[in-house]
Design brief:
Elements lengths: L2 E4 L5 H12 L3 E6 L13 E5 L5 H11 L4 E4 L14 H29 L3 E5 L12 H22 L4 E7 L4 H4 L16 H12 L7 H13 L6 E4 L1 H9 L1
Parallel strand pairs: 1-2, 1-4, 2-3, 4-5, 5-6, 6-7
């Protein structure tokens, strides 16, 4: 029986991915900053652990408590939408601490055991903003683009040890979900000078033609984990798939 550790499981993509793998017979280690026991079905194959990917001691404790990990899914992330010039650098650093450095730190903590066993996989969840340039998402895009390059390079060096590195690229989800893990409000990041520019963009966000569902991402992670053909990128959601095909 294989074991998967997933970060950011308190809601959204991480929660649904944990549920999907649990339903399909895996041992699941669902991690989150503030553990909640009531959000997943009770199972002998489920463990819920505290984890803050921005804190070295928290990562070490979670990895030690987890034991052998066959698959690592780096899903934890925070978003930021708004004009770049109005986004505080303090918040941009928080975004990179979680979305970029947190992913790297988790990978560095888990890779050694996979290398010793010469097996395993790490799946990094990024975003469709890496597939096409989108306005009012410069800092967020930069944090996710860094992981795209990181994972592509990592895939080459880990393949020597029979370890796979994959990317899952979710498409658009409602703005409230996108920014639920951030303390900065969108309206505070749109100065008056940007109001006319931002208005039609947010109007389009409010009525998207296609929305990525949590199940889309869970299924893409499942496909990435089980891929043996060397595919690196797995777009999740109809809009992400369309963008990937257009590129």
């Amino acid at each position: 029986m294989q074991t998967i550790l997933i970060t950011g499981c308190s809601s959204g993509y991480g929660l649904e991915t944990a549920r999907h793998f649990l339903t399909n017979g895996w041992t699941v280690i669902a991690t989150m900053r503030t553990p909640r026991e009531d959000i997943l079905p009770r199972s002998e194959r489920l463990r819920i652990l505290p984890l803050d990917v921005t804190k070295e001691e928290s990562i070490a404790a979670a990895v030690e408590a987890a034991g052998p990990i066959d698959v690592l899914v780096n899903n934890a992330g925070i978003g930021v939408v708004g004009a770049f010039e109005a986004t505080p650098m303090s918040h941009i650093r928080k975004v990179f601490d979680t979305n970029t450095l947190g992913v790297m730190a988790m990978a560095q903590a888990v890779i050694p055991q996979m290398r010793e066993r010469r097996s395993g996989a790490t799946v990094n969840v990024t975003s469709s903003v890496t597939l096409a340039a989108m306005p009012l998402a410069a800092a967020y895009t930069a944090s996710k683009q860094a992981i795209e390059g990181f994972t592509g390079s990592l895939a080459h060096e880990l393949a020597y040890f029979d370890i796979r590195a994959k990317l899952v690229e979710p498409g658009y989800a409602p703005t409230t979900r996108f920014s639920q893990n951030t303390s900065v409000r969108i309206e505070d990041l749109i100065p008056q000078a940007y109001a006319d520019f931002a208005a039609p963009i947010f109007a389009a966000f409010a009525q998207p033609a296609m929305i990525t569902k949590e199940t889309d991402v869970a299924e893409a992670v499942w496909a990435a984990v089980h891929d043996t053909d060397g595919q690196l990128r797995f777009p999740a959601g109809r809009d992400a798939v369309a963008l990937a095909n257009a590129g």
